[in-house]
UniProtKB/TrEMBL annotation:
One of its GO terms (molecular function) is phosphorelay sensor kinase activity. The chain crosses the membrane at residues 21-43, 49-71, 114-132, 138-164, 185-210. PANTHER family: OSMOSENSING HISTIDINE PROTEIN KINASE SLN1, TWO-COMPONENT HISTIDINE PROTEIN KINASE. One of its GO terms (cellular component) is plasma membrane. Residues 220-254 form a coiled coil. SUPFAM superfamilies: ATPase domain of HSP90 chaperone/DNA topoisomerase II/histidine kinase, Homodimeric domain of signal transducing histidine kinase. Its EC number is 2.7.13.3. It is an enzyme of class 2 (transferase). Residues 254-480 form the Histidine kinase domain. This is histidine kinase.
Length: 484
């Protein structure tokens, strides 16, 4: 094992040498390219600034220099194996050409990256020369040390025998070299006591210089980074506040629109009842007509009550005040409760067959019993709404892998168009608005279902084919997987 780790470390060191040499060799042509491009675009733009073409050339030059800096930062981080702080924390919002020019001219990083790109030309020449000369220098040193070793080995061996003790050679700033016998003597003498590795240290020294330049000129310093992080946090909070305000405005508009229909219906039917009670115009309602009017008013008040409950659930979720009593819940009990509660509704009102199939031993899930019941109630009610008379709705379960239980609610209803599947969990979204209003839907049920499932640590998915039906899958963590 130790031999493998040593070999792996040696391979990494060799790869670092090769990547460093490649970076130094590339510094020369890249430095020429940067110098030529910057001189052409930035130099000419300054000279032509009084003409309209000068400003576009300046913008193009700044843009190219920024892209060159991004490329150089990538090379330095991956080829020189050093970390460099980012040039910027986030992408700038869309700007016109004047805003882009002002932002870059006032940005400290623009001038630092320009300095790095201009230094790339002279230092690139020096790096290229060193990278080319290193193999030659290594061969020359190897030949010199071989000759010196051939001449000096017998003399040093005689000294070693005469001393009858290890020969110690001390270099300033390095650990002493101990020569205990002929084996050590040959190994150190024929490597020039480390002089053969001198070109390698020169190569790493040049890489160290480029690392320091990259850290200083291709990334923000610590103070600028902290300031940028604070500004980024402020921007995120402002964007969050703007989204919340826009969501609030849309919510008010949508709720006002949804309230108008049931309120108008209740008002109209109550006015008819009041006129019938007054007997001023001779209007007399039969018991059947009276029952119809009262039934319609009752359904509309139920719709209003449902909307209020949905809005309360929505507000709790948005305010992060949704309290969950997470526990080990037997899903079979929840499914049976929902089945017994909605079976009469499915049979009497829509003549729909509601079935459920559960295995004998069903694992417990980590969830909130009340909220899981609410989720299944919403899904089954939604299925009843969109399933024609005589259809079938089924509730089933299956275990997914070893950590999740999937509860599925499938129907033989109208289905959901493929282009609308990604939008059905949005608030107030309805695939068929006219049908939803007539059946009591507000477009909040699926949104609340998704919020509740997410809050319980699960996820909800949907499969649907238009004209054939839909199937919603609730994925919940097993209680046993949580404890393990």
């Amino acid at each position: 094992m130790q031999a493998q780790e040593t070999l792996s470390s040696s391979n990494r060191g060799q790869a670092k040498i090769w990547s460093t040499a490649a970076y130094l060799l590339l510094s020369f042509p890249s430095g020429i390219l940067y110098f030529v491009v910057l001189v052409i675009f930035l130099g000419l733009s300054v000279g032509l600034l009084i003409v309209w073409i000068g400003i576009p050339m300046l913008i193009l030059g700044l843009y190219l220099s920024w892209q060159f800096a991004i490329f150089e930062r990538y090379l330095a981080m991956h080829w020189l194996n050093c970390y460099i702080s980012p040039l910027a924390l986030s992408r700038q919002p869309r700007q016109n050409w004047l805003q882009y020019l002002r932002a870059h001219l006032t940005n400290k990083m623009t001038w630092k990256t320009l300095a790095f790109l201009l230094l790339k030309f002279p230092l690139g020449i020096l790096s290229f020369v060193f990278a080319i000369q290193v193999p030659i220098l290594m061969l020359v040193l190897a030949l010199i040390t071989f000759i010196l070793g051939f001449v000096c080995t017998p003399i040093l061996y005689l000294i070693l025998v005469a001393r009858n003790a290890p020969l110690v050679i001390r270099w300033p700033g390095r650990r002493p070299i101990y020569l205990n016998g002929m084996k050590d003597l040959i190994r150190y003498v024929f490597t020039g006591f480390g002089l053969v590795l001198l070109p390698r240290y020169i190569l790493l020294g040049m890489a160290w210089i480029w690392q320091q330049l990259g850290r200083a000129l291709l990334g923000m310093n610590n103070q600028d980074l902290r300031v940028a992080q604070a500004e980024e946090q402020v921007r995120r909070e402002q964007a969050k506040a703007e989204r919340a305000e826009l969501s609030r405005q849309q919510l008010i508009v949508n709720v006002s629109h949804e309230l108008r229909t049931p309120v108008a219906s209740i008002r109209a039917h109550l006015e008819v009842l009041l006129k019938a009670c007054a007997h001023d115009d001779g209007l007399v309602l039969q018991p059947q007509e009276l029952s119809n009017y009262l039934g319609i008013a009752h359904r509309e008040t139920v719709r209003l009550s449902s909307l209020v409950e949905d809005l309360l659930s929505l507000s709790r979720t948005e305010a992060d005040k949704l309290r969950l009593n997470m526990a080990s819940v037997p899903p079979g009990e929840v499914i049976e409760e929902v089945y017994q509660a909605l079976l009469p509704l499915a049979r009497k009102e829509r003549m729909i067959t509601l079935v459920h199939s559960l295995p004998e031993r069903l694992p417990r899930v980590q969830a909130d019993h009340q909220r899981l019941t609410q989720v299944l109630m919403n899904l089954v009610r939604n299925a009843i709404t969109y399933t024609p008379n005589g259809g079938i709705i089924s509730i089933s379960t299956r275990q997914e892998h070893s950590d999740y239980l999937v509860i599925s609610v499938a129907d033989t209803g109208m289905g959901i168009p493929a282009d609308q599947l990604a939008q059905i969990f949005e608030r107030f979204y309805r695939t068929d608005a006219s049908r939803s209003r007539s059946s009591g839907g507000f477009g909040l049920g699926l949104s609340i279902v998704k919020d509740l499932v997410d809050a319980m640590g699960g996820k909800i998915t949907v499969e649907s084919q238009e004209g054939e039906g839909s199937c919603f899958h609730i994925h919940l963590r097993l209680a046993q997987a949580i404890t393990n």
